Amino acid sequence: MAAPKKGRGSTGGQGRPGRALALILIAMVALTGGMFLSGHTTPRLGIDLAGGTSITLKAKSQPGKPEAINETNMNTAVSIIERRVNGLGVSEAEVQTQGASNIIVNIPKGTNSKQAREQVGTTAQLYFRPVLTVTGGKPTPEGSASPSASGSGEASATPSAKATDPETASDPKTTPSASATTQGRAVTDALKKDTTPTPSGAAESSGAPAASETPDAATAALEKKFTALDCTDAAARAKAGDGVKPEDSTVACSSEGDAKYLLGPAEVSGTDVDDAKAQFDQQRGIWLVSMDFTDKGSKKFQTITKKLSSQTSPMNQFAISLDGEVVSAPQVNETLSGSAEISGSFTQQSAEDLANVLSYGALPLSFSEDTVTTVTAALGGEQLEAGLIAGAIGIALVVIYLVAYYRGLALIALLSLLASGVLTYTIMALLGPAIGFALNLPAVCGAIVAIGITADSFIVYFERIRDEIREGRTLRPAVERAWPRARRTILVSDFVSFLAAAVLFLVTVGKVQGFAFTLGLTTLLDVVVVFLFTKPVMTLMARTKFFGGGHPWSGLDPKRLGAKPPLRRSRRVNVRTDHPKEA
What angle do CA 124, 125, 126 make, to 5 degrees? Predict the structure, then answer.
């Protein structure tokens, strides 16, 4: 009687398999319900399956800094571009370097992919510069706004009275009023250097020599560039500030091209911005971008607004320059500290885009779009179809093997595979909107490979049960005694698979990560299914006559497995015959 008692004691939860089954069934129902309620009934597809856009960005050499294109700056640019795109909610965007000066960006077709394409190569170099003068966007006649040196070290430029172009004279944008309200920090004191350009009218009123009388090369070049600049030309507008250092004065156009500015040196930059958010101003009914500065940036902003507030228009304006274009030029009427707001002709989308690029920082390099390729889903669809056919063939072969070798046990294996499939599909569908997971071809391969891992766990358990039956035990004790040994083997095997998937995910980029992620996910689900589904179902099946009685088609027939019950009986007889001898 000792052996049977020990067998019952080892069953543990043998009488409560329903609890584990109820738990996994509740999880399956909850995941399926969540999938339908969220409206995401299919997994998101990657660029190779759904199509999309592939962009090659080429780093541009910077004047005087040929060494700027290096591995560190390229990796930093990749990180910033990736954060920008992911910040827009684009699923499975791939960003990686190619060679020494190229970055490849793959953006799947779908929500926000257009905005992502617009932002990937945006340098987002933000500067706050004082406005020295402003005119209409068209070329200025010679002598209408000639910069000159200020003898006082403080520029005090105003629009020249000589600007006689009727279009610019009547243009309300000639001296635009500030449309951005600043509550915070930073704009440059471009007016502190003697070489700061000022309009000739201002120079004459202060007694300083005009630039036309004592010109230096830099001032003459700046004057010529300002008067010739045509901001209505998109190409000229984009190149207006090329090669200009932050500490130099420059010319710039408004983002709409209807005004051009002469700007002083920058003292506050985008690196002084700690955070940026798009907000809707209920009182004014406009979208704006609010910025919080760092402590250092806040002090800079307070200093410059104090100086600008004492100037007259347009010298009391500062230009917010983004990648060489003036997005806003607010007036400063008092000393400000705290945060700043950029307002203008923003839509909700443009405000969110600007806040996004400012939040994640400026790129350390300038880039140009080398190639833009539209990827269709046709080729990926064909490959997916071929992969699914291969997966179906693989499953069919597994089923044939299970039925031929394990017979009735194949039913338990197929039910477990079905449970694993339901969990995998629903979780993948929900991970799309949750973390941006997208199913690509390598991920599909990972799911197919997982079929073998899951089937291997069933085989380990089934073989342990058969070993117990070969030793002469009946099915119910065999199921419970086999479980600890099988469980240990399954856990070790799955741990190795998960470790390999985790290492692969960490050391690779792009599509290979999709394979590693799917393999790791399905490996974890294998443990869940074996513990909460396969084992409890096997316990319940052992109580039935078909399996418990050792039916020839159950896969657990003692005779077919080579068990020898008579040997066990003979041992019991020998033990009984010893008692009379002892008596």
Answer: 100
Number of other residues whose CB lies within 10 A of the CB of residue 234: 10
Rounded to the nearest 10°, the torsion over CA 491, 492, 493, 494 is 50
Residue 484 identity: P
3-state SS class at 571: helix
> Model confidence over 394-449: pLDDT tens digits?
888 888 988 888 888 999 999 999 999 999 999 999 988 787 787 888 888 888 88
384: its two tokens = 């997916």
Report whether 303 contacts 189 (CB < 8 A).
Answer: yes
Q: Which helix (H) or strand (E) holds 429?
A: helix 409-435
Supply the DSSP symbol for 312.
P
Long-range contacts (CB closer than 8 Å, 24 or more residues apart) made by 5-14: 7/473, 7/477, 7/480, 7/481, 8/477, 10/477, 10/480, 10/481, 11/476, 11/477, 11/480, 12/480, 14/476, 14/479, 14/480, 14/539
Rounded Cα distance between 327 and 319, Å, is 8
What order do you get walking across the sheet with 273-281 strand by strand? 273-281, 286-293, 339-343
Please name the residue that has the structure tokens 């089934």. 462
Q: Are 57 and 51 in contact (CB under 8 A)?
A: no
Instruction: With CA atoms as reference, report the closest residue to 523 among 425, 453, 421, 427.
Output: 453
Task: Report DSSP letters for 38-67, one per residue.
Answer: HT--S--B-HHHH-EEEEEEEEEPBTTBGG
Q: Which two tokens stand for residue 527?
A: 């443990």
Percent of all residues in the chain with a pLDDT value above 90, rounded to a whole number: 16
DSSP string, 179-245: ---B-S-----TTSSTT-EEEHHHHHHHTPPPTTTS--HHHHHHHHHHHH--TTSHHHHHHTTTT--
Which residue, chain included where needed, has tokens 């990827």? 375
Report the relative pairing of strands 94-98 and 102-108 from DSSP bridges.
Answer: antiparallel
Higher pLDDT, 221 or 176: 221
* Peptide bond connecting 43 to the previous residue in cis, omega within 30 degrees of 0: no
Query: What's the Rg (C-alpha) of the chain?
Result: 37
pLDDT for position 419: 93
pLDDT at 271 exceeding the cut of 80: no
Tens-digit pLDDT profile for residues 463-504: 999 999 888 888 889 999 999 999 999 999 999 999 999 999
Local structure of 388: helix, strand or coil: helix
Q: Using CB atoms within 10 Å of the CB of residue 216, give its burial: 0 to 12 exposed, 13 to 18 middle, 19+ buried.
A: exposed
Neighbouring C-beta atoms of residue 271, cutoff 10 Å: 13
Residue 331 and residue 344: Cα distance in Å, rounded? 13
pTM of the model: 0.56
pLDDT band at 330 (very low <50, low <70, confident <90, very high): confident
Dihedral of alpha carbons 324, 329, 334, 337, sign:
negative
Tell me the mean pLDDT in the region 39-45.
Answer: 84
Terminal Cα-to-Cα distance of the chain (whole angstroms): 21
pLDDT tens for each residue of 235-252:
788 777 777 788 888 898
